[in-house]
Write a structure and sequence with these properties.
heterodimer; A: mainly alpha; 13 helices; B: five-stranded mixed β-sheet; globular
Amino acid sequence: MRRGSGRALPYLYVLPAFLFFVPFVLVPFAHTVGLSFYDWDGLTRAAFAGFDNYREALGSALVRSAFTHALVLILFFGVLPVVLALPLAAMSARESAPAGNALRTLIFLPQAISTVVVGVSWGWILALDGPLNTGLRALGLDRAAIDWLGSFAWALPSLGMVGAWTLLGLCVALFFAGLQQIPESLYDAAAVDGAGRWRTFRAVTLPGLKGPVAVALTVTVVSALRAFDLVFVTTRGGPGTETVVPGILIYRRAFEDARLGSAAAIAVILAVVVFAATWVINRIADRKPS
Amino acid sequence: MSRFARGRPRCGLLSLLAALVIAGLSTGCGPDRAGDREGAAENGRRTLEVWTPESGSRLQLVQRRAGEFSAAHPDVAVNFTVRDFGSYPAQLKLALASDRPPDVAIGNLGWSLDGPLIKAGLLRPLDAWAARYGWDKRFPDAARAQMRFTTDGRQFGSGPIFGIPYAADVIGWFYNVRKLAALRVPVPATLAELESSFESARRAGEIPIMLGNKAQWPGLHLFYLVSADLASDQEINGIVFGNRSVKWTAPGFVQSARRLALWNAKGFIEAGANGLSPADALAKFTLGSGVFLPAGSWNVAELSAAMGDNVAFFLTPPIRAGDPRRATGSVGYGWHITAASRQPDLAAEFIDYMTRDEFAIELVAGGDITPLDLGERTPQLPSRLAGDVYAAWQSVVSNGTLLPYLEFAAPNGAEVLYPTMQSMIAGHETPEQGLARIEQSREEFLDSLQ
């Protein structure tokens, strides 16, 4: 922007978005932060509690395990789809247009399905007598047929796989769009230099996709941290507390246990973790290649 | 809410925004509805606002009876607000704390809903009307503690009457009649016989106990069927009514949890229970999976519709043959008058009308159970199953062996009690560890009441 066009102008551009951002994001967030310093049941007078809610949350084994589960989900919701989507996007870009389109549509489809439908469908697929186990038994793998979402060891990874399946399509779509932005001349140059497939991928494709990868990681990592709907529909946090995530705790404390201050404190901690994660991702993405 | 919404906008933009938001809100909740009630009162017609979480046949019954009340009182209209059971507590709290609270509302026992409402001063003690209408004598002894709360909302089970019940529930074993007969096993008369029938079922390749524990609370209901034999009255009542000398780590509870873990280890419980919803488990049972289904009396209508005479019911048999059976159940949640109601006498008259014998007769004729002793007025029961459940309920009421739900003791069910119960059943956690954690959470709650 040229200097001298008025300092107010940029702010004017931001104003329309800001008008919505303030009442629907900033004010509720400030309200939540305020609430987190009170002991409140939603009905009687709130009592100021200082940092008690934070102390309780950070000291609680259940809250800590909820955040640990969210970190595990990051591997499944974020890292796994990004790693799988890179070759898939590269492959689909090389296919003829109809085949590539069909492949991408198929992979993107889960994104278009509501999470509740995804949860109910996978709940059925992963049930003890569901199609997955029926298939395993048909292969003679009877011992591998277990109650996936009801198993203390496998419930969280199973949920993670469902999330990965959902988010893979988004990553492929983002990377495919990114690939279109890489000039063909770079590939030609690489070919002239005698670079093989792997070398071309590392030297041309990957650096060209840095932006889309950062966007994909931001979206998927945030969706792992704030996971609620999928967990609520498939396991409700069980078995035991094996799939309890921060969202489930916030919901229960706010709407079932009437501990709104405690719920707000966990929500604020979650928000801080989300900010930190997105900051780290963007810092790495912005780094100039050495 | 207002306590926290008191923002102090520093700049003009923010105050403009605040003004816009407030303007939007005030047009949204227009004054048209606020005028309703007063307008109605001027015409000489009064409207009784009533909230309920009921659904299905019970809701129809309640609304039909309320229609009869209106017919008998031409100047009174009854306006129902119906919300689904799951979201009802949160919504009722908001409605009661709002500027336009209802006159009458159905609550839920103990800390699940009534406790917080009474603590917040939103419900009225009903002793004055209880004496007038005989509510204090209408219900069985077992029910009386469940109707009471201290006015400060800190002690469940004593103090004035706050809720008037109208239906009842009891938890027991439903069983597949033909499957049990095919196993050549008699209907169990002792706990040992019950366990040996599980063993017979397992050996025959059947699932002994069909359970859908994905929702996590059904595991606790299975626990009730064991603690009915292994835990004492003093242990159970102590937990429910906040007696701090009784703890969850008491021997009766440890033995009960141990027994459930043993049943699971022996393969008596449906292997996929943790991934199965209660509704799916019920559906599987009606389709012939499982010999026994541990569940509450509220499932009678659905089960007898699906299975006819092939389903029957009994309460956990005693350790010693012939001893009276004990069972967990309640006279159900009650009707309440809100503190803000401007027509409490009318509300009380309505509640009395809704909880009399005539209502109970219709309830029983539909296959449900009632807190009232109908004696000779007991109607024809609609199915064999309804007959079993009705007789079982009558026996615990007349023997004084009805036990209260342990989950009424504290509002920590979803976060601690249910998941821990699930872990203990699966053997993922020992009874000692799990019960100690449940007790710790209960003590934290009791401390918070002080």
